[in-house]
Amino acid sequence: MKLKTYRIRKPKVVVIGGGTGLPVLLKSLRNQSMDITAIVTVADDGGSSGELRESITTMAPPGDLRNVLVSLSDMPQLYADIFQYRFKKEDKFLANHALGNLIIAAMSEMRESTYEAIQLLSTMMHVQGKVYPSSDQPLVLHAVFKDGTSVSGESKIAEHRKTIDHVFVTQACGATPKAARKVVTSILEADLIVLGPGSLFTSILPNLMIPEIGEALLQTTAETVYVCNIMTQKGETEHFSDADHIKILHQHLKQPFIDTVLVNTEKVPEGYMDFEVYDEYLVQVTHDFNDLRAQGCRVVSTDFLELRDGGVFHDGDKVVEELLRILY
């Protein structure tokens, strides 16, 4: 049994993912006495991030990194609002760009490294924890469908509405991606590793498909927790149960590595979801606890639901409460 030395020090918690779910969890984790490391996907190629990575081809996409920095920062709300401000669509060449994305782009160019830019911004923004891009190079996400066809580009995958067989990542030049500095060490030294919440194929797996990161997850002695999505996603996880999510994760790393799964069992009220705003979501993920246990997972099932703004989210405080139980 691993000696829990963090009884006399801050436990080291590594959270891996991207999208909108990761900042929700990190914001709640920030209030705990923990040594937090966020490892953030760099395969996004849509919206403001996509436009910027086309303009500065050596820069990792900034959008997910921007949101994570804000979630872990204790800077005044006005500063956060300025950093998160998104220009109006009629503002010509600035249209839809978040100011923080432009700042990250500028600093990445100044330092000739997105990794270095994020470390400098972490200091400036009083970030409580460490934020690392999963790779210092922008990555291209590729999806291979069950029918044998394939597509390249994170933003294009869901458009096809096909069943995904597997995904993989490359550098823009086609080379094998490498993990950013300190990412692998953080995973190997962690007491707890949390995957998600976030899109399975486009926010979580792009990190794991970097060979060094996948290997580190198989080697680590830390408890590895998957926060299962509440809703299925169009063109990604249609008709998925919670057990299907785990099968996909294990298939991609070619062996079981998830120890515990957090599953929401609270029902979303009928007619609550605003599907015009949240058009990527379909129905609630179904449950197959027997299959989860057959795959070697401990299951924690309870109410993790937060309803706001016509959308369905994880309640970060409730998730962290369970993570603390696992740790201690």
TrEMBL record:
Chief location bin: cytoplasm
UniProt superkingdom: Bacteria
Compartment(s) where it occurs, according to its Swiss-Prot or TrEMBL record: Cytoplasm
Keywords assigned: Cytoplasm
Protein's job: Required for morphogenesis under gluconeogenic growth conditions.
Family according to the record: Belongs to the gluconeogenesis factor family.
Record-given protein name: Putative gluconeogenesis factor
